[in-house]
């Protein structure tokens, strides 16, 4: 084929770097083939090999998909357990927080009562203690000779 400018694009091709060869890279005819599927056994053997390889890839993807699903289910189960634990801790903390105002009120009342008793005791006057001299013994001023 010539590369003259006779308008033959197939011979020249739009391929700048890799022009088509002169038919050496085309598939050779296998003969046979028709409506009844007759043909060479090599053609069907190649198709069976491709089909087996495709089935292997599909099985690998099935296994990968099953592993991903198992990991997702396990992850959701783990998260469910963690959420339940956190919910229990939050509930316990909430009940403790609700009890705090009552405890604070009781403590303040105790402190107020103690202070009131101390103030009352400090304001009370001390009872007066009168010291009396000890009684003199009877006839105590006379001396014996």
Overall 3D form: rod-shaped
Major sheet details: none
Strand content: under 5%
Mean pLDDT: 78
| SSE run | HH
**Which stretches of 5+ consecutive residues score pLDDT under 50?**
1-5
Q: Helix/strand/pairing class, anyone?
A: mainly alpha
Query: In total, how many beta strands?
Result: 0
Radius of gyration, in angstroms, nearest whole number = 56 Å
Q: Helix proportion of residues, in percent?
A: 55-70%
**CA-CA gap between termini:** 179 Å
Helix tally equals 2
Short description:
This protein is mostly helical. The chain has 2 helices and no strands.
Question: Can you tell me about this structure?
Answer:
With 145 residues, the chain is mostly helical. It has a domain at 41-122. It is built from two helices and no strands. The longest helix has 83 residues, at 41-123. The model is unreliable at 1-5 (pLDDT under 50).
